[in-house]
Amino acid sequence: MAAKRESTFFNMVSTLLLVSAISALALGSVYNLTKEPIALAKKKKQEEAIKAVLPAFDRLVTKKFKSGVGEEKDSLQFNLAYQGDQFVGAAINTFTNKGFGGEIKLMVGLLPDETINNISVLEHKETPGLGDKMAKSKSTWSNQFNGKNPATFKLAVKKDKGDVDAITAATISSRAYTDAVNRAVVTFGANKGGI
Q1: In 3-state terms, what secondary structure has residue 86?
Q2: Would 5 be classed as within a structural domain?
Q3: Of 10, 40, 131, 134, whose CA is between 20 and 30 Å from 1?
C-alpha cells in the first residue's frame, strides 16, 4: 500500500501555488477568448444607438469635448452626423455617476438647434422594475424627452422644479438620467462653434 503523503508546510504551499497557477492560466485563457466578442458587441450596440437617436445621415465624424459639467469634467464623445455636407445632429455619449446603482451611460441625439431627437440607454445598474424603466425596452418613460428643446423644457424632475416626470418610486434614477442628458446638452451648446 502506498504511504500517505506527509502534510508539511512545503507540500501545502506547493499545492496552493499549483492550483493558483492553473486557475490563473484558465482565467487568462477565458479572458482572451471573450475579449474580442465583448468588444464587438459593445461596438455594435454603440452603432445601433447612434442610428436610433439621429435622423438619417450618410457620414459620421467623431470628436471629443470636455464636459465641464459638475464634478465630473471628463470628455464626451460626439458622433457628428452629416447628410452630404449638412450637419443633421450629434449623437453624444454621456454619463452620470448619480444613479441609484452607480454610473449610467446614455446616447443622446441632439438636432442642430439643441432639440432632443431621441435617447438610448447604453449601460446602467438601476433597480429592476423601478429605475430600469429608463430603458425603452422596459417603458416609454424616456419618450417625454423626444422633441423637447432645453431652451423651453427644463431638464430637472418636477420635484426639483423642472419639467421631467420622474419614474414612479425611482426619483434618484430619474434625476441621474436627466443629469446625463443635461451634461450632453450643455456640452453641445458650449462647443457648437467647434462642430
Answers
A1: strand
A2: no
A3: 10
